[in-house]
Amino acid sequence: MEHLTLIIGVVIVTALVFDFTNGFHDTANAMATTISTGALKPKAAVAMSAVLNLVGAFLSVEVAKTISGGIIDEGSGIQPEVIFAGLVGAIVWNLLTWLAGLPSSSSHALFGGLIGATLVSVGWNGVHMDAIAMKILIPAVAAPLVAGIAAAFATRLTYRMARGRSTAGTARGYRAGQITSGALVSLAHGTNDAQKTMGVITLALIAGGSLAPDSDPPTWVIVSAAVAIALGTYLGGWRIIRTMGKGLTDIQPPQGFSAQTSSATVILASSHLGFALSTTQVCSGSIMGSGVGKKGGVVRWSTAGRMLAAWGLTLPAAGLIAGAAAFLAERGDWGVVTVAVLGAAACATIWAASRRNRVDHSNVNDVDPETGRPVGPDGTADGSADGAVEPVSIPSPRTTSGPASRATA
Prior knowledge:
The protein is mainly alpha-helical.
């Protein structure tokens, strides 16, 4: 029992570490457009997002119940060591994609980690494939498409409503709208992503016999998960904020407002239904939709392609890391210690690598003066280092020539 109590404690701490990485990895979801358009100063934006993530975590437990009892079979013999391995896989993948500045899904990293570790431990009987399909895979495809289409139409409508008005006259309204919609996305993020950690901790408590099956998360679990994600959000995932705010499209205030409003609507609706979707994918889809919705708008499809590749790799990559960790962790105490040491070493190495080319609140909006494209952490214009093609503009329906229809780098 002492060993079981100790390993549950290790799982809880590791889950909160994941929650912390989820916070700074996904800060961009709520605040990338608000920061890139200058509606809020970077530090003020992440502070507001942190507070609202904290509040949002208390609004619902539907997603937490999906994680704790919907994906993994509680009665299949899952041990806390397996959950620990799944969390290690999710954390390592989160940090790798953060280092690359790619807005991959923290949610899918968690799902992939838990599924991979469970498959190695107890096999296919330990996972509910129907729940994975209905509540993870289908929303993963549908949610960003729905958000993107909604953002495209909202952007068109917003520009149409502002037609004939001066930019200066509408700037204040758009700034207020962006702040409000960004706050709503942060609140929505708390209702969805913070609950995933609550679900994992609840699953560990059930696996260890501390809670009855199908239990709701205890109050202390809700509070600790809410605080962890809020602290991570305040740290600010500046690399991913740069990619989403400057790398996908040249966002103007009307686009930012439309993208954030569309994202918040989709996330809140999904949280109400208990769908544990990726807020990263939703917000990225909305940003691309806002680029498509603006006449003459620019979408950098090379950056979008790298992002989509990261989305596709997240589930299997996190699953492979977690599967290897589960194989070691089930060998006994020495295996758990080995996984903990290797995981900590991997995280420290990634963090050290990130310090060589720092991105923070002081340079998150830097662009190359000649091309106008965001400057990557390596000091070169985004995409230039890998031979990426120039972005393609979305031509205006009224004309196929002229400045409005040309791509701007």
